[in-house]
Every structure is written in C-alpha cells, then in structure tokens.
Specification:
The chain has 196 residues and is of the alpha/beta class. The chain has a domain of 104 residues: Response regulator (Rossmann fold, 3-Layer(aba) Sandwich), CATH 3.40.50. Helices cover 39% and strands 16% of the residues. The protein is built from seven helices and six strands; from the N terminus they run H-E-H-E-E-H-E-E-E-H-H-H-H. It has a six-stranded mixed sheet with strand order 2-1-3-4-6-5, covered by helices on one side. It is globular, with a radius of gyration of 18 Å. 23% of the residues are buried. The C terminus is likely disordered.
Length: 196
C-alpha cells in the first residue's frame, strides 16, 4: 500500500508576476499555466514588487529596461521568461524567450519543470510532456461545442441584445479544458478565441 503524507498531497502556491504584458497575452499565458500546472500548483498572480515571486513573465520589449533589470536582479533566485508575439501566429520557446501563441505546450511545460525549483521534484507521470496530446476527435468535439454554444447564444438572444457573443465560446473552451480528465494538451484553438 502506497502511503502519501498530507504535505505531499498539498499543492504548492506559485507566485507569478506579469511585467509589461498586454491584456490579451495575459489571458493566454494564464490559460497555458492553469492547464500545465493545475495538478501541481495553485497559481497566484502578484505584483512585481511582491517579496515572494517564483516566476517573472516579462514583455520582451522591456528586457533591457533598467527598471526591469533592477527588479530581476533584486530576486536572483526567481525564474524569468520573456514573451513576444509572433506575426505569423506560430509560437515557440527558445531558451528564455516565449513567442506567442503556442500550439504545443510541451516545450513550455519542460521549461517550467526545469527552471522552477519546487516543480523539479514532481514525478514524471505528472509532467505534461508525458501526457496525451489533443486528438483529432477531441479537436472536432471542441469545435462542435464552441460552434453550438455560440449559435445557441445568438439564437436565444436577438442580435441587438447580444453584448458579447464570444463569451459563451470562451466558457465552452474553459469547460472543455476542465472536463478532459487529467490530460495536458496543446491549446491549438485558444489563440484564435483570444484574438477575436
């Protein structure tokens, strides 16, 4: 019988400071991290001046700004990743530069597990790099669910009353991400939802 102590079952709190990141990119990054770390950590979004920060996510445009460098140097044990936007919609991760939007979260997952000390002890079975990929069937179900939800909202509300018809689509995406039990997946369609 495998006995797990209460402290092993408790999630750690991961404090993340977003610096100079556009609101649309913030939504995308928060979604990525929630999916990748939902089993390992409770995420807390904090000010860059907070005393305890586990991860800085900084807009690449401010990488060499004196104030940003001073902030990062004041917390030498804090991991830092810089973010930028791809003009071609093909994101990637190269060393400490995360170019959005990502279609595959595995490189980000590997970076997080290698750069954040409290994640380095997590068993391999929990890491996203070993989890199932989003299959064509799930992608089709996802698209059907989002199309159906958007159509239902428009059909049930006259066009003049539809304040934000895409909010139902975003809710469907969130529900789908939660209901696919214990799988980690690339967010192939999330950037399309965020950019609308």
């Amino acid at each position: 019988m495998n006995v797990t102590s209460a402290s092993d079952r408790l999630k750690k709190v991961m404090r993340i400071a977003l610096v100079g990141i556009k609101p649309g990119d913030q939504v995308m990054l928060k979604g990525y991290l929630r999916i990748l770390l939902r089993l390992e950590a409770d995420l807390e979004w904090v000010s860059a001046n907070n005393q305890q920060i586990d991860l800085f996510m900084v807009n690449h445009d401010f990488r060499h700004a004196e104030s940003v460098q001073k902030l990062i140097n004041s917390k030498p044990n804090t991991a830092t990743i810089y973010t930028a936007r791809s003009e071609t919609e093909n994101g990637y991760l190269s060393q400490d530069l995360l170019v959005l939007p990502l279609k595959d979260l595995e490189p980000l997952s590997e970076w997080l597990f290698s750069q954040l000390p409290f994640l380095s002890g997590v068993p391999v079975r929990n890491k996203a790099s070993t989890a199932a990929k989003l299959t064509a069937d799930v992608a089709h179900a996802y698209q059907s669910a989002t199309d159906t939800t958007a159509n239902q909202r428009v059909a049930s509300n006259p066009p003049a009353q539809v304040a934000n018809p895409l909010s139902g689509v975003a809710q469907s995406a969130q529900v789908l991400a939660v209901t696919i039990s214990d799988t980690r997946m690339p967010l192939t369609l999330l950037p399309n939802l965020v950019s609308r």
